[in-house]
Amino acid sequence: MANAVDVSNLYVSFQGKQVVQDVSFDLQKGRMLGIIGPNGAGKSTLLKAILGLIPNDSGKIRILDSSIQSTRKFIAYVPQRNDIDWDFPITVLDVVLIGTYPSLGLIKKPNKKHRDWALTCLTKVGMEEYKNRQIGELSGGQQQRVFLARALAQRADIFFLDEPFVGIDVTSEGMIIQILKELCYEGKTIAVVHHDLGKAESYFDDLLLLNKNVIHYGHAAEVLDPSILSKAYVHHRVFLNRPKEVPVS
């Protein structure tokens, strides 16, 4: 099967400190990847470097066998909630309409067809009744559902989400993961920065265990073996909702 993402020997620095070191992996089309690791492991930095949002020191990144500049319109990105200005005066519907912009060209404005599609995406995430609300008036889970709707509106082939389940309600989390699984079933590719190891096996096909460099990459159940996890979480006691516990190093 062809790869959606290929990363080779990637090095990335943040604020003068190298936080991603010699990272290499490939993500097949139609798979859902969880990127896990301790705080400060470089997970979000890796995601932003792949997307071209921050520069890398060296290495090679290919998206759909091309550069990010050539494939950007096929990629949807849901950033961390703390990266968003929730006071910005924009309605829920207008947020989702932004997802249609890559297909509009330089001059065109969204028309009724685009608005109808944005409403369809809002309906899919259960947020259509909030279409006229200012985005900052919503709860954390509602906000995250709106940004997933924006990603859906883009009709992307690859979805990158950075900590989408942090600070949201159980209902929103369940709805979001169900939609992501449906997208994978349709052949879309998903990469998610994630922190809850207890849910990782049920959520993801594959896991990338990161602590500046790649500790292990493979099927979720394989990576969640305590003997592998302990190599990344060196100074942490990690508990899984599984029979085993990672020993303290």
Question: For the CA atoms, what is the radius of gyration?
Answer: 18 Å
| Largest sheet features | 6 strands, mixed
| Secondary structural class | alpha/beta
- Overall residue-averaged pLDDT value: 89
Percentage of residues assigned to helices: 25-40%
In one word, what is the shape?
Answer: globular
Contiguous runs where pLDDT drops below 50 for at least 5 residues: 242-249
* Helix-strand string: EEEHEHEHHHEHEHEEHH
Oligomeric category: single chain
Q: DSSP helix count?
A: 9
Proportion of beta-strand residues: 15-25%
Q: Could you give the distance between the termini?
A: 38 Å
Q: Strand arrangement, largest sheet?
A: 5-6-7-3-8-9
Number of strands: 9
Give me some keywords for this one.
249 residues, alpha/beta, 6-stranded mixed sheet, 3-stranded antiparallel sheet, 9 helices, 32% helix, globular, disordered C terminus
Structure write-up:
There is one protein chain. The longest helix has 16 residues, at 170-185. It contains nine helices and nine strands. The strands form two sheets. The protein has a six-stranded mixed sheet, with helices on both faces. Strands 2-1-4 form a three-stranded antiparallel sheet, covered by helices on one side. Residues 242-249 have low confidence and may be disordered. The chain is globular and about 50 Å long. 32% of the residues lie in helices and 25% in strands. Helix 4 (112-124) packs across helix 5 (140-153). It has 249 residues and is of the alpha/beta class.
Produce the secondary structure layout.
Layout: E1 3-14, E2 17-28, E3 32-36, H1 43-50, E4 58-63, H2 68-71, E5 75-78, H3 92-97, H4 112-124, H5 140-153, E6 158-162, H6 170-185, E7 189-193, H7 197-203, E8 206-211, E9 213-219, H8 220-223, H9 226-232
Parallel strand pairs: 3-7, 3-8, 5-6, 6-7
Antiparallel strand pairs: 1-2, 1-4, 8-9
Helix pairs in contact: 4-5, 5-6
